[in-house]
Q: What sequence folds into this?
């Protein structure tokens, strides 16, 4: 209802851009709420799961909600693979359950084809001193005929939280690769799930460039 009364095209575009940006900054379990208002200037976007809210006037003036840089980056890392927030949340829950239920890891299959390899580099074209681009890859076949493939690749941080995950299909390109933006100084552990050989876990890796 509030969106319908916004007549100015530039303001509407800023609003849409701000909503998209805010959505990527929200931690899992959060949502955007648009209360009805009889006047657009009184409308506010409530950021459930985060402190405070932002008004339409704030958006017109280019103001954004106050989120810590580290919290924002950790929240968006799971989305870096291109998944929607809902898809990323579901995938993160699935791998978390797989990981916790695994009775063994690194036990089946050839290590050279299953141990995830991890690296970090500065994000190209962006001067961010606090964030690095982390890449996890494994030289594994993606065979839809058997099938034999890597189904999930994910990262856990030092607090054992899933901070990035990517889902693959049997016909996905090989090698399966996950890329995520992670705060420098974070210690992460790369993991993957092979549909035939279970969970494999790499060595802890401190994100430094």
A:
């Amino acid at each position: 209802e509030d969106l319908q009364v916004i007549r100015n095209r530039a303001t509407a575009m800023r609003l849409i851009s701000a909503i998209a940006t805010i959505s990527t900054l929200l931690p899992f379990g959060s949502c955007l709420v648009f209360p009805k208002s009889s006047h657009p200037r009184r409308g506010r976007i409530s950021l459930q799961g985060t402190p405070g809210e932002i008004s339409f006037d704030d958006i017109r003036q280019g103001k954004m909600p106050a989120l810590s840089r580290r919290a924002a980056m950790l929240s968006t890392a799971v989305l870096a693979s291109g998944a929607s927030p809902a898809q990323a949340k579901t995938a993160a829950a699935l791998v978390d359950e797989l990981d916790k239920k695994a009775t063994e890891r690194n036990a089946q299959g050839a290590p050279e084809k299953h141990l995830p390899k991890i690296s970090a580099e500065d994000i190209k074209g962006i001067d961010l001193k606090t964030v690095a681009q982390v890449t996890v890859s494994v030289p594994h076949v993606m065979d839809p005929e058997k099938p034999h493939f890597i189904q999930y690749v994910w990262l856990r941080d030092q607090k054992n939280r899933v901070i990035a995950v990517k889902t693959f299909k049997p016909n996905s390109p090989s090698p399966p690769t996950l890329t995520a933006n992670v705060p420098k100084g974070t210690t992460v552990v790369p993991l993957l799930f092979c549909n035939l050989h279970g969970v494999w876990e790499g060595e802890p890796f401190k994100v430094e460039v």
